[in-house]
Amino acid sequence: MKALADPDNALAHGLATIRDQFQVPDAFPAPVLAAAEIAAARAPAQHVDRTDRRFVTLDPAASTDLDQAFAIEPSGADLLLHYAIADVAWFVDDGDALDTEAWQRGTTRYLPDGKAGLYPPILAEGAASLLPTGPRPAVIFTVRVAPDGGVRLDGAERAIIRSAAKLAYDSVRDSDLPAGFAELAGRIQAAEDRRGAARVDPPEQEVAALGDGTYQLAFRPLLESENRNAAMSLATNMAIADALQAHHTGLFRVMAEPDARAVKRLRHTASAFGLTWPDAMPLTEYERTLDAIDPRQAAFMLAIRRAGMGASYVPYRDGVVPWHAAMAATYAHATAPLRRLADRYVVRATLAIANGQTVPDVVTEAFTRLPQVMARADALSGRIDRAVIDLAEAVMLHGQEGQVFPAVVTDVTDHGARMQLRDLPVVANVSAHNVTPGDALRVRLTAADREQRTLSFERIN
């Protein structure tokens, strides 16, 4: 899970249990490793030489599975984003052992103590990764970004690139980045605001030791470099989605807006955190006012993320415009093929249409099967993420049994109430009847079971 850091290994035992429970693989089968060894030695043969163009990567400092590298150049009033994406399809053949294993996994699975990759490390963190250790095969998408933030796919090509630098979010300087990086990100973000996009990027959660044997959940707001980097991926995925839709093909990421009940729960959650959300202000407008530096606002940003209707994948359908409510746009996933199975096929389709070629039948057929495969993978990742959060909450509150917490009812269930603690980013059930959403409660923690990853509260008022 990328959104929870555990530098002191407070969760180690519980994480081992979670890995066992959800059968998170700790290795690849021998045939897959053998196929990866052979694939890693495959020399690029369909790629133009773009090693004269200065590409860089920007990621967490410890990352080695680098999907994206970028270069930027002006073109009149526009900016051209050359977004290089790891050419995973060059190494993975349809139906081979690597492909079969990737269809079983669907995505890379993240936990605080490590990940279970979609592809073996010799590829994902070696030959296919856009590391600055030598030339790498890539697919370069050239995206034209207008002054108003409008995006258009100008071209796509297989190319050999050489990353000039592996830059890290927490240490990068403006002088390390291509000229136009901040301007491009600003254009994309301004366009989001005008569209009314509701893309929320919550801060990372960290398990912090307090020094007395107890822990707390703390927040690390995203750095400006992270938000700007995300804008490049957003621009590319939107441009690709528009191109695919125009050519009557593709696989799209869609998401409905939170329904009225979810928004009502969020209003009660905002009240629990002491936040002022004007009655007449829509959620999409209010969430753009939130500041992740404030712990309560940061916790509310996480609540918004969890309240979403959930994103899914759909293939192209005649007469249907796929829509992602949070992006307020037609959207696709194409920029993380080392970590998501679906991206490999979207990249292949985009490469074909951008060069006047027919999308391969195997790709079109994959678009019909991928929604179910990705839904299963996403659901499993969601269950793992929820288990990790439950564990972190139990570790944080262990030893505080008997303490009283203020809370607010956010929803009523058949078995009681769902509540949000006022001072902690914890949502839990409590046996409380004759209450309505928005009611204030005082609850006592009766158990924080780290083994079962459960919290128990009793109402005291």
Automatic annotation (TrEMBL):
One of its GO terms (molecular function) is RNA nuclease activity. InterPro entries: NA-bd_OB-fold, RNase_II/R, RNase_II_C_S1, RNR_Ribonuclease. It comes from the Bacteria. This is RNB domain-containing ribonuclease. SUPFAM superfamilies: Nucleic acid-binding proteins (SSF50249). Residues 47-356 form the RNB domain. It holds the Pfam family RNB. SMART domains: RNB. It comes from Sphingomonas alpina. The lineage of its organism: Bacteria, Pseudomonadati, Pseudomonadota, Alphaproteobacteria, Sphingomonadales. GO terms for cellular component: cytosol. GO terms for biological process: mRNA catabolic process.
